[in-house]
Amino acid sequence: MAEFSENEAPKTFDWMPEGCVPLADGEYDAIIMGTGLTECIISGLLSVNGKRVLHIDRNSYYGSDAASLSLSNIYAKYKPDAQPDADLGHSRDWNVDLIPKFIMACGDMVKILLHAKVTRYLEFKSIAGSYVYKDSKVQKVPSTGPEALNSSLMGFFEKRKFRNFLLFLQAYDAKDPKTWRLGKPNDKLTMKQLFDDFGLDANTCSFTGHAMALMTSDDYLAQRASDTCEAIQLYAYSVERYGQSPYIYPMYGLGGLPEGFSRLCAIHGGTFMLNKGVDEVLLNEQGKAWAIKTGNEVAKAPLVIGEPSYFPAEKCRVVGQTVRSICFLNHPIQGTDNADSAQIIIPAAQIPGRKNDIYVAMVSSAHRVCSNGKYIAIVSTTVETSNPIAELNPGIALLKDIVERFDSVNDLYAPVADGTGDKCYISQSYDASSHFETTAADVLSLYERITGEQLDMTVSADLNEDEY
């Protein structure tokens, strides 16, 4: 990692505002603000491409909203006047994620990790099970024909229909009309048309679209079927590749992901500064970002990238809110076969009046994130009412006895513009979902807007056995 001495005489630049001095080396190819996962991925990729990167964060730790905090730090953040119970063990044994996210084993996030070779810094473990809440019970999500026939999610005849649907997806070839339905390829059908053609009922469509395709609302039913079908195929392939569920998770918590990309950036000459806030993003007469200012220090770059909180308020818009509850448990979640980890999706259709799904992500001491015998479950959803904490109740009820609970409600931000005009490249907030597919999509979009090129995603998403 690049270092600099405060005793060195500051450099001088013609562009330097009066009364200011250079921040670090003064001039860079890119300035990145915030060490969230999205920002760290971008900094790592840009540095590998030969860009000189200055990466700063107002916090004393890496990760921002994607950090994993020790027991003492999680209390300091949410309950500063309280002390952890001695039964919870040592603070250093805990790495508590601030957001609940698993990684689709063969999805885009894994491809990004492999593309950047960051997997060399990380160790992964499979998540033990993927479940859906239906008829007041937690039930395993089937992903293969045999599992469909044995599933308690469906009645006898519905199982046959769903099995036929999965076999259709397995055999489908967009170039072979013999594998099509209704005489059309999937991109010429809506998902509702395809579901109706197989005669699948509303409950089957719900868990298929939400728990397998990971759609966050029912809007997908009116959209082309090819996108949802590809997502279901990815889910099924990931389960086939890794076994119990389609998800993997980094040992010692999600905070290892941004740290891994930060390490990649540092190896390629990036400069990192923690505990360094940003007072202002400087704009020129054309309204384009050209520098940042902290105190009387200024650094210049043609690319200014970062989390929404670092930019002027008018550059972002609030697109909603997410509510999360981090819960410590002494036991696994009932209905998961005593799994040491699990994802549970409660489709909105299972809760009268809801529009958004509720997510439950559970990990345990098996993942080196808490003391032996302890479990961490995070319940999250998109806020729909004036009482957001109460909206988590269906998920909280699944946890039974809770040792400790930390609640938060956060605004969700999205950039007003794409950054190509004002050179303010702003990431999106992390949504309520318990997977990284939406985050991966934001990374790929940001990278293309910043560089003008698409990231090469042709790499196989298969991890070697020694990587998980």
Tell me what you see in this structure.
Strand 2 (30-33), helix 1 (37-48) and strand 3 form a beta-alpha-beta unit. Helix 1 packs parallel to helix 9 and helix 1 packs across helix 12. The protein is built from twelve helices and 21 strands. It is globular and about 80 Å long. It has 468 residues and is of the alpha/beta class. The strands form five sheets. A seven-stranded mixed sheet has the order 9-8-17-18-19-16-20, sandwiched between helices. A five-stranded parallel sheet has the order 11-3-2-15-21, covered by helices on one side.
Shape verdict: globular
SSE-based structural type? alpha/beta
Q: Please report the number of helical segments.
A: 12
Strand order of the largest sheet: 9-8-17-18-19-16-20
Head-to-tail CA distance between termini: 28 Å
- Please report the total strand number as a whole number: 21
Can you summarize the main beta sheet? 7 strands, mixed
Strand content: 15-25%
Q: Which whole number gives the mean pLDDT?
A: 91
Indicate the low-confidence ranges by residue numbers: none
Estimated helix fraction: 25-40%
Query: What value does the Rg take, in angstroms?
Result: 23 Å
